[in-house]
Every structure is written in structure tokens, then in C-alpha cells.
Amino acid sequence: GEVCNMINKKYNEFLPSMQSAEDLVAQVDRLSSNIDLLKAGIENEVQRDLNVAVAEFTELKQQLEQDTLVLSILKKLQEFDTAIKKYNTALMEKKYVAAAQQLAKARSSLKMLQSRQGFELKILKALSTELTVQTQNMLYHLGEEWQKFAVWKLPPSKESSSLESALHSELHLGTVPSKEEEVAGPPVASVLQAFAVLGELHAKLKIFGQLLLKYILKPLISYPSLQPVTKEQSDVLILRFKSEEPKLDHASPMEVFDKIKLVFEVLHKYLLNVPLEEPEDEKDCRVTLAELLGDMIWEELSDCLIQNCLVNSIPTNSSKLEQYIEVIKSTEEFEKALKNMHFLKGDATDLLKYARNVNSHFANKKCQDVIVAARNLMTSEIHDTVKITPDSCVALPRLPVPGPGDHLKMQTASKPLHNDMVNLENETKLSQYTFSLPTCRISSSVEKLMELAYQTLLEATASTDQCCMQLFYSVRNIFQLFYDVVPTYHKENLQKLPQLAAIHHNNCMYIAHHLLTMGHQFRYRLTNILCNGAATFVDLVPGFRRLGMECFLAQMRVQKGEILERLSSARNFSNMDDEENYCAANKAIRQVLHQLRRLGKVWQDVLPVNVYCKAMGTLLNTALAEVVTRIAALEDISAEDADRLYSLCRIMVEEGPQVFTPLPEEDKNKKYQEEVPVYVQKWMTFKELMIILQANLQEIVDQWADGKGPLAAEFSAAEVRSLIRALFQNTERRAAALAKIK
């Protein structure tokens, strides 16, 4: 009963809660179906409306962008149009800078329009054309104005670079401000600034700069007689030239600088002192026109000044170097003046560097002058000669007296440098003739060359170290040049003309002679600078001796060849009883003697006597030896042949010595003619041959004297036997004589 009650109670409590749960489920079901309805509604209607709205929004946005673009384009077109209108107004009023700035604005508007992608307007082409036309129009107006400011009056001729045409060239500057314009600022400024804004200034100035160089600046540098003249005439300034007699061939740099400064001052005052930006953008460093023009022409102008003005002003001897300071100063002042006028910016241009570097230029110029002078001497005629004797000396200026700073031992170097006594270190006195040259003739050009060498060395001893070295080496170069130039330059004449070959031989010996002692005289000064006493020329001596010898020996070979050639027409000296043969032989001998006489004459007083005698002796010897060889080779000599051969030989012996005439004074030549046997090796051989031609068998045997007689000294046994067989019939007496020759 208890249990039952409890269950009832629980059940009663349960029923309501179940009821409420069922209610709840029903509610949820209702809600769920409502949601489904709503969802269906949203999916079907709201979503569609939303899509439409977004599409509309995007479309509106694109429309807005399009409108903004069109608006900005219209704005730019309007800007362009306004700019062109303002430009036209400004141009009419000759406000050139404003006009140019408006064109620049129009150009930038057009650039913006062209940069818009996907925006192709036919109008752009038209605008571009319009802008080009207006720009050209403006440039034309500016050009017209510019031509009024700078008018060139040039000579009609094509020849632009003569003094004549320079005198007819004028530059008219129409920029002299009249009173009322002074306030408004000179119109030239606005024209040039307008050119700058349009980017055309460079081209205009370049043309102006080129004309300025060609017709004004360069003529002023090239023609010392030109003077620039300016004159104001109503509102025009005229710049032209007048001619004055110049004091020197080359104007001094000071004068040239002054003239050029004047031209720049005029240009600066009347034309170029114009800032390139409008004053409202106050920049610290405004570029002026002068600077632009300076940039364009300075390099060419300074080159021209260096080449045609400074180069000529470099002194040629060291004593004038001191005064060169003036030139350096005036170069500095010239540059300073140009800087003040803004033609130049920056420091120490090439022009100034060149002037300051005078020592090195001095040395270079000096060396170049020396080499040019030397080359001229080497290519001048060899046959203008001077006579030198053992006591000739090279003429020299006195050495400068050493100043307090030069503790150089320059003792004695100012004495004339004699060919004879050279005082070697004062200790050992050499014989007067150790270093002497024999009397002979040399080219006067070579004597001058030697003087040039000595003077250059003297100059070297008085110069700065660097210059001293350069000059010393240029003297060495003179001799190396001689060695290379002379033999080639005079080659043909040295081969063809025996006299020139002789003079050249002497020239080389003379140079070699001086080279032996040349460095020695200047050793005190040169050795300090040239390491370990390299101030010497001795190494060049053998080369010069060889050069002289080779040339002369080549000439000797030519002469020998001619002698043998002439003797070859003597028909071997055989069958002299035939009249025709005898005539041919006689003619050959006469021709050889004639050749030798002629040589004896052209070498007379030219070659040193000992060389002369050796040379003539050698050639006469060639002739005699050839005759001996031919006659000794004959197999049959009749009595008449022998007589005729003897008379031919007698001509040689009598007239041969007479070709020795080393000296112009006839009476002094006797001595050398008597000494012929000394110089002619085959002389005695020839005399012995003549004896044989006249002798009988016994006399020949006596002359042989068992191989101890004079005949044996000149001929071999075989030669003598051969001659006996040719001269004598085959008899017992001949056989007996032959037996004794062995």
C-alpha cells in the first residue's frame, strides 16, 4: 500500500512535465517551418534584389571614374588652349620669356594627355601639330630679334683665314640700351632666356661661338698686327679690327691676352651678362650665358693660345727664363679676368698649366730646335767645305760666371777648345799632336754642327738638372741622327762623286775626333747629374770611324773596278807588233792615267796627305799589278813586242808618280812623287819587269843571282822561266839560263 502511493505520486508529477515537453516540440516544429518559409523567401526575392543593387553600384562607380577622366582631360585641353592664347598675347607684346613659358605649359599639358592609356583622341594629333607650328613661329621671331642684337658683317670671299679678310670682318651688337628701356631690363635678356626655356639656346650659342672663334678670336692670336677697335654708333656697338705694324713676328702673350680680354669685356657688357632663370627663382648659382659660351669655346681658344702664342714665347736660352715669370703672371691675370666675367669657372686651366710648366717646355723646345737645326745642317750640301788644321778650334761663347749658388768647378771650360792640346786632369801633358787632326777639308755644315753641339752642352751646364739631362741627351741624339741620316740622304752622291766620299770620310773622322774629348770638357757639371759619370760620347767614336772608312772604301772599290775595266780593253798586251793591238793597249794605259790624274785633282787639298798618298798609291798599284800579271802570262813575245811593251810600261813609270798632287802648291808635291815606291807595293816588281823586257839572257841570270838578286825579290822562279821562254828562241843558251833559275 505504501509503495503504491509513492508511484502514484511520481506519476502525477511526471505527467505535467511530459505535457510541457510535448508543447515545446510542437513549438519548435512551428518555428522550423517558419524559418523554412523565410529562407525560401530570402532565396527567391531578397538575393535577387541585392545582386541588382551591387551591379548598379559598380556601374555608377565606373560612370564616376569615366566622368572624372573626361573632366581632367577637358581641364588639360582647356589648360592647353589657355596656354596657347596667353602665348599669343605675350608674343604680340614681345614678352618673350612669358610666351616661351606658356609654350612650355602647353607642352606639358599635351604630354599629360598623351600619357592617358586607352584614350585615343584624334584631337591630340591636331594639338601636337599646333604646338609645333607655334614653337617654330616663336623661334622664328626670337631668331629675328637675335639677329638684330648680333650682326656679323663678313667678307664675301671663301677665304676666311687671311689677314685681309679679318680686316673686313665686323660684329655689330645692337644691344646698347636706350634710356627708356633701362628700366624694363635689356630685351636681349628676354630673347636669350626665351631661347633657354625652349631648349634652343645651346644651338644658338654654339653657332655664335664658332663665328666668334673663326672671325675674331683666332685672327687676333694669329696676326700680331691686328688691333680690336670698338665704337658706339647710335644704339649699335661695332667691334672690328685695324692693322698696325707689329714689333715682332710673334706678339707677346701679354698683348694677345689684352686684345682677347677686350673682346670678352665688350661681349660681357653688351650681350652676355644675362642670368638664365627668371629672377623670381632666386638660386645662389645662376648659370650665366657667359659661362655657357665659355664652356663651348674655351678648349679650342686655349689650344689656339698655347699653340700660336705661348709656344712661341717659350725662351730659347736659359738666361731669358727668369723674365718668363711675367708671362705666367699675365696668364693668371687673364684667367682671373675671364672668371670675373663668368666665361671661366674652375682653377688652373690647361693654358695656365702650360705657362707654369715653362721649364719643361723650355727644355723640350730647346731640344727640338737643336734637332731641327742639326737636321737642316745634315741635309745641306756636303761640298761647301772649310779647311781645318791641327790648331783649328771650335768657336764657343764664354761660359756664364757661376753664381753664388753654383759651387761648380767650371774652371777653364771657357777657353776655346783646341783640337790640339787637351789638358787631361792637368797632371799629364800629352804631346800637342796626340789629339790633333791632320789638315784636311770638312763640310762647313759639319763644323757648324759641332758648334751647335758644344753650345748646347754649354747651355746644359747652365740649366736646371732636368733640362741639363734633356739637353745632354739631345746632343747625343744629334750624332745618332747624323749616323742615320747622312749616309742615306746623300747616298747617291756619295757613291757617284769621289770628292764627296772623301769629304764625308773627313767629316766622320772630325766628329769622331771631337767625340773623344767632348764629354770631358763639361764633366764637372754633367757628372753630378748623369749617374756615375755617364756624360761621355766616347762610345760613339768607333761607329763614326767605321762610317767614314766604309764610305771611302766603297768609293775605292768603284775606282779599282774602273781601272780594271779600262785595262781589260788592252787585248791582253799580246801581239803588240799588230798596230791595232798596240793602239788599244796604249789607249787603255792613257785612260787609266787620266782617271788617276782626275782623282788626284779632286782629292787634292781635301784628304789628309797621308790618306791621300795611301789611296792614290793603292789605285796606281792596282793598275801596275794588272799590267804585270797580263805580261807575265804571255807565251810568246817577239823582239818588236818587247820594245813596244817596254815603251808602254815606261809611260806608266814616268807619268804614274805625277798623279800624286796632294797639295795645291806644285813645288810641295815633288817630295810625295819621289816617295811613290813607298805607297805602291808593286813598283819595284814593275821596274824589274821592264828590265827583263830589255835584257839579254846573261843579264837576266845576273839579276836573279841564284835567287838572291833584285829580280828574285819580285818574281818567283816559275814566273821568270815563263818569261824567258816567251822572250827567247829555244837554244842551248836558253836551256842553260833556265837551268840557273831555280
UniProtKB/TrEMBL annotation:
Q: What is this protein called?
A: Centromere/kinetochore protein zw10 homolog
Instruction: Give all residue intervals belonging to the Centromere/kinetochore protein zw10 N-terminal domain.
Output: 2-84
Indicate the quaternary assembly: Interacts with NBAS and KNTC1/ROD; the interactions are mutually exclusive and indicative for its association in two different vesicle tethering complexes. Component of the RZZ complex composed of KNTC1/ROD, ZW10 and ZWILCH. Component of the NRZ complex composed of NBAS, ZW10 and RINT1/TIP20L; NRZ associates with SNAREs STX18, USE1L, BNIP1/SEC20L and SEC22B (the assembly has been described as syntaxin 18 complex). Interacts directly with RINT1/TIP20L bound to BNIP1/SEC20L. Interacts with C19orf25 and ZWINT. Interacts with ZFYVE1.
Q: What is its main location?
A: nucleus
Family assignment from sequence similarity: Belongs to the ZW10 family.
Q: Which InterPro entries match?
A: Zw10/DSL1_C_sf (IPR046362), ZW10_C (IPR048343), ZW10_C_2 (IPR055148), Zw10_middle (IPR048344), Zw10_N (IPR009361)
Residue ranges of domain Centromere/kinetochore protein zw10 C-terminal in the record:
435-565
How does the record classify its membrane topology?
Peripheral membrane protein
Example of a GO cellular component annotation carried by this entry: nucleus
Which cell locations does it reside in?
Chromosome, Centromere, Kinetochore; Cytoplasm, Cytoskeleton, Spindle; Endoplasmic reticulum membrane
* Keywords per UniProt: Acetylation, Cell cycle, Cell division, Centromere, Chromosome, Coiled coil, Cytoplasm, Cytoskeleton, Endoplasmic reticulum, ER-Golgi transport, Kinetochore, Membrane, Mitosis, Phosphoprotein, Protein transport, Transport
Which terms does the UniProt entry file under GO BP? cell division; endoplasmic reticulum to Golgi vesicle-mediated transport; mitotic spindle assembly checkpoint signaling; protein transport
Pfam families per the UniProt record, alphabetical:
ZW10_C (PF20666), ZW10_C2 (PF22766), Zw10_middle (PF20665), Zw10_N (PF06248)
Q: Which residues form the Centromere/kinetochore protein zw10 middle domain?
A: 142-378
Ranges for domain ZW10 C-terminal helical come to: 587-741
The record, for PANTHER family, names:
CENTROMERE/KINETOCHORE PROTEIN ZW10, CENTROMERE_KINETOCHORE PROTEIN ZW10 HOMOLOG
